Amino acid sequence: MLWQQLIYPISSNDADELSDRLAASGAAAVTLKDAADEPLYEPPIGTTPLWSNTLVIALFEEGIELGPITATLAQEWSPRQLPEPQIQQLPDQVWERTWMDGFEPMQFGDRLWIVPSWFEEPEPSAVNIKLDPGLAFGTGTHPTTRLCLEWLDGHSMPNEIIDYGCGSGILAIAAALLGAEHVECIDTDPQALQATIDNAQRNKVSNRLKTGLPEQQSGKPVELLLANILAGPLIELAPKLAKLVKSGGEIVLSGILTEQWVDVSKAYEKWFEMQQPTEIDGWIRLHGRRLELS
Fold first, then answer.
1. Higher pLDDT residue, 135 or 85?
2. CATH number of the structural domain spanning residue 13
3. CB atoms within 10 A of CB 119
């Protein structure tokens, strides 16, 4: 099947509304893209920030007339001025196959593998996590996820763990497959929790994982807490996360840029003996051991 796409440059304030209107107009898919190479480093907890200059890209089947769609959108947008879209014809290709070709099994440390469902396990005797790329909640490709997976691979798992900011559930599933008996998975996004549930079922560890929003967290201290989020939230959450780790327990923090690790480490020094950082491609992992509770 042949495809065509409409590309609108627009401000972040209007991107969601335009996306909804394009979807209602029959677009097969609508995506958002940075129009000016603007990084997004520190979104507040529970928010989904956009670039100040955003491209809204709508995909349509070749036979759909785009002229009436763009005219209707411009009329509905009035009295605001809707930017003139760019129209692109896309070459014929098997989109599912093209998408799948971008992923392959990945090894982390000595034991862990992430294996997409359409691949055979490279090492059947290894700890293989079945995980397909989907919503961008973590598939092992980002350095922050890799840093955490490699730490998990190199350590014995305690019985009780918290994965704070669980995303796809990749770290929680890895911990369960490596021997953890109970992993509490916390996230602010219900979609992330559902992704964790689905992936846990695929990997047959549903009985070891419990999911919930932050307000549903049990509050019970554990032996290991993982938090692969971002520096700002990590600093803000330091007192709360510290209370969730037992004396002598461990904390593993990631999602931290190289220039941010000192501030994050200092935020936890009141409660943890913090170790020197581990870095991959400008991203940092921190590890600390909980001091005796006073």
1. 85
2. 3.30.70.120
3. 15
- Winning range, highest mean pLDDT, from 63-67, 186-190, 246-250: 246-250
H runs (alpha helix) in 32-180: 66-77, 95-100, 143-153, 170-177
Number of domains comprising the chain: 2
| Separation CA 234–CA 110 (nearest Å) | 29
* 243-265: pLDDT as tens digits: 999 999 999 999 899 999 999 99
Structural domain boundaries enclosing 171: 100-290
The encoded tokens of residue 144 equal 């922050």
Point out the domain boundary residue: 92, 121, 147: 92
Rounded distance, CA 2 to CA 47, Å? 36
Residue 274 predicted with pLDDT over 70 = yes
Exposure letters 193-225 (e unless 16+ CB within 10 A, then b): bebbeebbebbebbebbbbeeeeebeeebbbbb
- Side-chain-side CA neighbours of 142 within 13 Å: the count stands at 21
